[in-house]
Amino acid sequence: MSFSDKILRWYAENKRKLPWRSTIDPYKIWLSEVMLQQTRVAQGLPYYEKFVEAYPTVFDLAKASEEEVLKLWQGLGYYSRARNMHQTAKKVAEEFNGNFPNTYAEIVKLKGIGDYTASAIASICFDEQVPVVDGNVYRVLARYFGVDVPINSNQGIKLFKELAHKVMAKENIRDYNQGIMEFGAIQCSPKKPACLVCPLNESCKALEIGMVNKLPVKLKKTKIKVRHFNYLVVLDDFENTILEQRIGKGIWQNLYQFPLVESDNELTQKMLLKSLPDFLHGVKEISLFNEKPIVHKLSHQHLNTKFWIVNIQEIGPDGISISDLKKYPVPVLISDFIESFNF
């Protein structure tokens, strides 16, 4: 029995019941693939269900405001995915009359869609003979063929795409591609893979040479940057506060936050008072909410965060009611603070 036949048989017997498995609607497949990038199924599933309920069609998503989309996405992370998804929905709705392109070559041209997502949509929805290569597939192929070329190197990306072509099913590519991804997630998992009952164990090179736990190989990540954030939670006598929108190309683009003072090192209250923005005049009292900085870890950054409670008499026209805070899309770091602080 061939590699692909074993994957197909395993998938038929072991696949999880997931809502996007019962459809070939490219809109819903696209939603699921975007949400599951760098996200576990358990975390992504409730977001998928919320988005399908709120935006049943690509036209509904296209008509939504970016702020609404970001609010619904809140907590899922990597917010550029949501912004790109919204832009692509507009393009598909306006330029393609709601119909997704039906070939890999055209799908991959859409904003926020790379090789993997385009391959998944083309094969699952349109039965195109293209293999998918995601993190799960990299792991399966690296172990099966005993390949120690880094999966995130240029050489590795090219090599694993070739291997994926070599072993893919010539028929039923839809189930095969979903099957090999599922196989990597469940059977050939990152830790404690079930090698003893694996249908590929007789021909798995990594198992043969004792390299299962060492493959796949990945180039070391870039150095983690440490940043110091001081959020100013401004409160006035009329139950108003201040939020500002993050702009530019940095983290959390277009999300909202409390006014921010970023520093090279941890600030004391005395140091912070010298760095207060000009609009904060007439400060009555300032106090630190968390004595120990909250360390918020992103992929390449660690944010050492302090929340400072700043009391003033009146904020003025730029203030928003505290009761409206939860209407704004904010990073999970801010959301967690809002939940924990007794406004």
UniProtKB/TrEMBL annotation:
Q: What is its EC number?
A: 3.2.2.31
Show the SUPFAM superfamilies listed in the entry: DNA-glycosylase, Nudix
For this protein, the record's InterPro entries field holds: A/G_AdeGlyc_MutY, DNA_glycosylase, Endouclease-III_FeS-bd_BS, HhH-GPD_domain, HhH_base_excis_C, HhH_motif, MIG/MutY, MutY_C
Q: Any coiled-coil ranges, and where? A: none
| The entry's keywords | 4Fe-4S, DNA damage, DNA repair, Glycosidase, Hydrolase, Iron, Iron-sulfur, Metal-binding
The record's PROSITE patterns line, in alphabetical order, gives: ENDONUCLEASE_III_1 (PS00764)
Question: What does the cofactor field's note say?
Answer: Binds 1 [4Fe-4S] cluster.
Q: Keyword Cell cycle, does the record have it?
A: no
Q: Which enzyme class?
A: hydrolase
Reactions that this protein is recorded to catalyse: Hydrolyzes free adenine bases from 7,8-dihydro-8-oxoguanine:adenine mismatched double-stranded DNA, leaving an apurinic site
Q: Which positions fall inside the HhH-GPD domain?
A: 35-186
The cofactors required by this protein are: [4Fe-4S] cluster
Signal peptide segment:
none
What does this protein's UniProt record list under function? Answer: Adenine glycosylase active on G-A mispairs. MutY also corrects error-prone DNA synthesis past GO lesions which are due to the oxidatively damaged form of guanine: 7,8-dihydro-8-oxoguanine (8-oxo-dGTP).
- PANTHER family attached here? ADENINE DNA GLYCOSYLASE
Q: Which family does it belong to?
A: Belongs to the Nth/MutY family.
Output this protein's name.
Answer: Adenine DNA glycosylase
**Which species is the source of this protein?**
Croceivirga thetidis
